[in-house]
Amino acid sequence: MKLIQIYSNNAIFKPIQFNDGISFVLSNAHSVGKTKLLELINYCLLKNKSGTFLNLDRFKDISDLEFYLEIKVNNNFITIKRGVNSRSSIGIKKSNRSQKCKNFENSDYDFTGGKDSGIKYLNDLLEFKLLNKKIDFRLYLSYFLRGQDDQSDVFRLNKYRQSKDIVYKPIISNMLGIDGTLVKNKHEIENEIDKLKDEISGLILLIGDNPKEYIEAEIEALTTIKEDKESRYKKFDFFLEEKNISKELVLDIEKNITKLNKERNSLNREIEYINNASNTDLLIDIEELDGLFEELNTTFPDGIKEEYEKVIEFNKNLTQERIEIFKENKVEFIAQLDKVNIELNEFNSQRQDALSVLKDSDTMSKFKTLEKEIITIETNINTERAKLDQYNKIANDTKTKKEKEEKLFRLINNIGDEIEAFNKNSEIKKLVKKFAKIIFEKEAIFVVSSNAYNNLEFELKIADNGSFNNKKEEGNTFRKLLSFLFSIAIIVNYKDNNFFKYAVLDSPFDGDITEYQKGLYELVEKISNEYDMQIIITTVFDEIKEEHISKKASKLQVRFLTENDKLIGDF
Questions:
Q1: pTM of this prediction?
Q2: Angle CA(318)–CA(322)–CA(325) in degrees, nearest 5?
Q3: pLDDT value at residue 285
């Protein structure tokens, strides 16, 4: 895969046509967009938008902004359209010739859709393989599109800084011809074994010190005791049944007594009301009224007196009728009360008989104790059975752990064989040594080893003063150059495969160490001319100290960025 061109539907971005061999993206200052170009290419190759400069608020005002990246794979040209607006669909178009697609309709593309399905579609078009296995191109892309942040460690990209070995070491292994699946499986099995160890330790703490045989004997003894107590319990329960006595019976009696007591209280209130009403004199004596008029020196009018006597007579008759009704009701209420009292006496007698058995200290006390003992024994049996289950779980986990440890042992041996084969015969090792000699004019070693935990380690070192025991690889310039050295050794090794056919050097000439510029560019030309690889270099023009390189850079430049002509305006 080579990069052909990148352009936009908006004049804010000037199109860039990459050379087939060497391309320079130059600038007269820092922070004008050289590294951002790499981000943009990565975005067009379907990177997540989050974390890129395209996620800035200023791009929200250009909702229709789209970028187009054209790549070449074998003899086919593939254009990927990617909009800044998250709602815009991705477009992918394959052709047998280079073309501009910014005026295409969605229907003109071979694929339109979201990022994940776009990656899958592009993977199918690229058909990248390592060790005869299809790979996801995005897992490997950043090793050949390294920005400044990805040059601080040869093998561990910035995005893997916080990741465990299982995430990135299988990727490195695959590129080196060591089966990354073995490496990944090893880490997965180790994690599974660690989980089993933790689970077994936790179960042992729960079980305690008693062996399995002791627990089995304890369950058998407790079961015998429980059966004996249950037999006695059933006999006592039968004794209660013979007498028709149970707690439920007592509760029913109590309910009936409560109901009858309420009914009796109601009848007593009715009778008391009748008694009070019968004794109440509601009439006024006519003689009392005469006396009242005499005290007032007033004559009681005969007409009024006659009318009032009639009213008094009417009230007497009404009161008499009412008293007769009350008497009849009272007789009925008394009869009901007698019936309620008889029923209450019967229920009280039943309750007394039942409670005399249930409260007997020599019967119910033993019954209740027996009941509690059976419950306690059942609880203890269940606890011990749970321990027995845990013993069985420990046995199963131990068996599984042993099987996994045996598999892990085989994996470690297989990985060891592949490491040995790499260190003896790897073409990549030879290329690293060869290319390092051109850049540094010194010997290099590239070794894959297995540490004390049987984990892969990768070392790429340059000799200094006849020794590899130095700290050269810790310097920024050295790390940058070693990262490039590793990347080009990989792409050259797979020059005949469907794989990346380009590598990007982001600001390789920056820094105080300039002595390797000549060797670096000599290698770049060799890689481009002899192996037909595409090399893209971004740099501040004035950082190039070799005059012949400056001339070549000016000739091969594909974009010159300045403060007044940044990659995408002021971002």
A1: 0.73
A2: 145
A3: 60
